[in-house]
Amino acid sequence: MIKEAIVILALLCVYPTKGRAEEGKGFDLSCVTSLDLPTHGFLAAASESGTVEVEIHLDGKTKAANVELRGGNPGLQGEVRAAIEMSKFGARCNGRVLKFVFAFTVQDPASDSILPPAVRFVPPNRFELTFRRVKPNHDPGSTPPHSK
Predict the structure, then answer these.
(1) Cα gap 148→4, rounded to integer Å
(2) pLDDT, tens digit, 9 for 90 and up, residues 92-134
(3) DSSP designation for 77
(4) Hey, which of 38, 88, 130, 134 would disulfide with 79, CB 3.0 to 4.6 Å?
(5) What pLDDT, on the 0 to 100 scale, is given for residue 125?
(6) Rounded to whole angstroms, how far apart are CA atoms 22 and 20?
(7) What is the pLDDT of residues 2-44, one digit of tens each?
(8) Any residues with CB less than 8 A from the CB of 128 and at least 6 apart, and which?
């Protein structure tokens, strides 16, 4: 997870000039201090892939003032909202709107355990997160609750 954060911060430093040409469209990410990604393993058990677009309204504090989410299911949106709320933004973000796209893919074959997702940054603002589906955890010796 730390390795992913370092890579993301490095990419944010490399690509800010690309966004300056599109000022006001959410592509200049140079004021992002730290961006948490929705990679907390809860999605590994998800049954659906999806894409969530997020628009972050900033008011000059280090946190997002308002977060608008579009697309994906409520679980994916919740993961993105939690990650954005943990992210930090510099004072020069005051009054700005940043836009990100998080594309989630859940792949087969299923794994016996939760594996860390693969994360890829696609400039200027897209993150592709690939999770491995997790096999159901069933204890053959247990009795289902409804049969007692």
Answers:
(1) 46
(2) 888 899 999 999 998 888 888 878 889 999 999 999 999 888 7
(3) H
(4) 38
(5) 95
(6) 5
(7) 445 434 443 444 344 333 334 445 567 888 999 999 987 565 4
(8) 103, 105, 119, 120, 121, 122
> How many residues are present in the chain?
148
Alpha-carbon dihedral angle through residues 106, 109, 113, 115, given to the nearest 10 degrees: -50
Residue 40 region by backbone torsions, left for phi larger than 0, else alpha for psi between -120 and 50, else beta: alpha
Instruction: Please report the pLDDT score of residue 70 as a whole number.
Output: 97
Structural domains of the chain ordered from first start: 2-135 (3.30.2420.10)
pTM of the prediction? Answer: 0.73
At position 18, the amino acid (one-letter code) is K
Q: Which of 60, 16, 11, 61 is nearest to 37 (CA)?
A: 11
- The 3-class secondary structure across 3-51, one letter per residue, is HHHHHHHHHHHHCHHHHHCCCCCCCCCCCEEECCCCCCCHHHHCCCCEE
The tokens for 25 are: 């469209």
